[in-house]
Amino acid sequence: MATANKVTVIPCGAMTADLTWLLLKPGKSITDRNHKDGPAPWVDVPTHCVLVETDEGKVLWDTSCPSDWEDRWAPTGLQDFFPYDKVSDDEYLDARLTQLGVGLDEIDYVILSHLHFDHAGNAQMFKKTNAKLVCHEREKDFAFNFEGPFNGAHLKADYEGLDFQTVSGDTEFLPGITLIETPGHTVGTMSMQVDLPDTGTMIFTSDAVYMGESFGPPATPAAIVNNLEDFYKSVEKLRGIQEKTNATMVFGHDAEQIHQLRVAPEGSYT
User: Fold this and answer.
1) Which of the four pLDDT bands, split at 50, 70 and 90, describes residue 99?
2) Domain Metallo-beta-lactamase: where (predicted)?
3) Which residue, 9, 36, 38, 212, shows the most beta carbons closer than 10 Å to its own?
4) How far apart are CA 91 and CA 120, in angstroms?
5) pLDDT tens-digit profile of 214-265?
């Protein structure tokens, strides 16, 4: 089996938000009568990217949030619901890549799990590089064809003017990298499976699964789900792959898990 060479998880600080956006769970985000006067819990919503090194090039998975988030997101109003307010200057993506000694011109592919503003927020950094931008075919069709500057968390300013090559179905993309079709969160959300020589299999779920509590079992949905039936199918699809491969699952926005991983700039997986 072909394997990748190295995986580096790149933490990029955190947004904060009402937990209900991420987890529709009685007793956790949905209160009972004994707690009806209390505010809904606000939690950290960490954001990360992943650098995968293979014999056939370097891949960046997702691009996190932009440093000008407050202005960029203003048309949507979502800056008040998901403020990117727990981030330092050295945690923005460009600073992280500098810490790793990786120039933008060294990245061969930028694969976007989906085109929401906290995953495609720095895609424009690669406009004048040789990096090939990749997303799911259905994601591109939706993201470029709605009316107006934004639709939900899709913000055209993040990705307009960029050329994307697309994939569909489950795709062996490069040695050790398989893109997995996991719609539900959006019409074209993908997860990424990386097979490594020492660590074994890692699965980066992006927002197909927000956090360990979402994964369950049982799977627990969120307020931001485009298609609930697809969401459940995708979670169970990932669970099947995880059971078959004994994969390490890395969830999209898990505030506890991000601190348990080996992360950039010091840590990596081989």
Assistant:
1) very high
2) 46-253
3) 9
4) 16
5) 999 999 999 999 999 999 999 999 999 999 999 999 999 999 999 999 999 9
Distance CA 249, CA 213 (A): 12
Which residues contact residue 79 at a Cβ distance below 8 angstroms, ignoring those fewer than 6 apart?
A: 69, 70, 73
Q: How far is CA 56 from CA 4, 19, 43, 138, 264, in A?
A: 9, 40, 39, 26, 22
pLDDT in tens, 143-157: 999 999 999 999 999
The pair of three-digit structure tokens given for residue 44, joined into one six-digit string: 């950290």
Q: Are 205 and 252 in contact (CB under 8 A)?
A: yes
Q: Report how far residue 207's alpha carbon sits from residue 185's, in angstroms, rounded to the nearest whole number.
A: 6
pLDDT digits (tens, 9 = 90+) for 43-95: 999 999 999 999 999 999 999 999 999 999 999 999 999 999 999 999 999 99
